[in-house]
Amino acid sequence: MSSVSRFADLGLADPLLRALSDSGYESPTPIQTQAIPRILEGRDLLAAAQTGTGKTAGFTVPILQLLSTRAAARPGPGRPRCLVLTPTRELAAQVHESVETYGKHLSLRATSVFGGVNINPQFRALRGQIDIVVATPGRLLDHVGQKTVDLSSIEILVLDEADRMLDMGFINDIRRILKLLPATRQSLLFSATFSDDIRRLADGMLNDPVRVEVAARNTAPELVRQHVHLVETHQKRDLLSHLIKENRWQQVLVFTRTKHGANKLAEKLSRDGIPAAAIHGNKTQAARTKALHQFKSGRIPVLVATDIAARGLDIDQLPQVVNFELPHVPEDYVHRIGRTGRAGTSGAALSLVDGEELRLLSGIERLIRRPIERIQTEGFVAPSRPANDSPRNPRPSGARPGNGARKGPPRGSPSKGPRPGGRRQGQGRSGASRGNRV
Ligand code: AMP
């Protein structure tokens, strides 16, 4: 890997260097060091990089530079020159925001189009001169069908979180969109994982791509202090309330497996005096945006989300993630905890694991190739069938063994056990917002 450590050495022009410096970035992340010069050369790119690596700036910044140097070639209203496809509305909104942030000293125009919101403002935006469209596939095809966007002048295509797009069933939409683009174009594909489907898609859409790989998919957790709390299912909600209060967590993203579970948990926490909101696919876009905003601005300390809703959420320096239930797919654990410990900052992830989930836990530990430390809280009993729990797993010094249904004082009594995430849990809002990209 190159040892370039300054943005100025990557071939970026002054307006972009200023915007990066305005954002407070001192040096490029590894994906930026590798990707920016190659994108500026006009090469196609196949990038293995997950959220949290700085990949968004890694592609938006060089694209802005390429488009601004070729601005004379603007094709006219409704005919964008760059298309970024994302799996979710939230990610589309966030990529759009990044384009605005890094492009603030340029005069390029960007817009985002995604479903779940009124289409009319999107019509209006597309009627003007537009350089960059950030879109989810379904809504983009609606616009194509209504002839409000013409993709025949696309110079650069980006598929962001391509694996997620395939997981969400967008493959046919993507193929339809590819057919609408000029054959001669620059294409960039970002994906955290590389299944056969992704490889096939990449083979079909990329031309002699440069491959860049940063942070193998289980590297992000290196930055994250991970703990497991074994607990009976019926005690999970009380335990979470207890831990949030006890550790004075100010900003915690909690994952549940189901939408219903997310709602019930948010209601329970609110009843316990801990303001919480749930975001999931059944909520309107307005409700999701509001909840995210309240969470990012620090007005509500807890956001409960399902995996799909949380995909692509860009919450910078999130200090704490809780897996209220473990995901069925071990890779999703890595994605979830990648919400914290981003771009070099440290974070903590705690998983509440009941007896039914011990098998899932073993799968996760196999994937990340290490055991996760167990912790325990007085008054909360470990599941009664922990025999499957691997004896190899070390426990934090001073921690009580996590197995055995030890009866303790009533739940909610002050914990004398070690705190999840070590000594930095009561860190207040030290890891909180930087601008509005929290
Ligand atoms: P991403 O992987 O694109 O989701 O970016 C993760 C986070 O890292 C975002 O919140 C960015 O604002 C932040 N970030 C991106 N590039 C840098 C950089 N060079 N230095 C510090 N933070 C960065």
Major sheet description = 7 strands, parallel
Cα gyration radius (Å): 23 Å
| Coarse morphology | globular
Termini gap: 30 Å
CATH class bucket of the largest domain? Alpha Beta
Task: Describe the fold and architecture.
The chain is α/β, with parallel strands linked by helices and 438 residues long. The chain folds into 2 domains: 224 residues, Rossmann fold (3-Layer(aba) Sandwich), CATH 3.40.50.300; 185 residues, Rossmann fold. The chain is built from 15 helices and 14 strands. The strands form 2 sheets. The chain has a 7-stranded parallel sheet with strand order 3-4-2-5-6-1-7, with helices on both faces. Helix 3 crosses helix 4 and helix 14 packs across helix 15. The two termini are 30 Å apart. The C terminus is likely disordered.
Task: Write the SSE topology.
Blueprint: H1 14-22, H2 30-40, E1 45-48, H3 55-69, E2 82-85, H4 89-102, E3 110-113, H5 120-127, E4 132-135, H6 137-145, E5 156-159, H7 162-167, H8 171-179, E6 186-191, H9 196-205, E7 210-213, E8 224-230, H10 236-247, E9 252-255, H11 259-271, E10 276-279, H12 285-296, E11 302-305, H13 307-310, E12 320-323, H14 330-337, E13 347-353, H15 358-368, E14 373-375
Helix pairs in contact: 2-3, 3-4, 6-8, 14-15
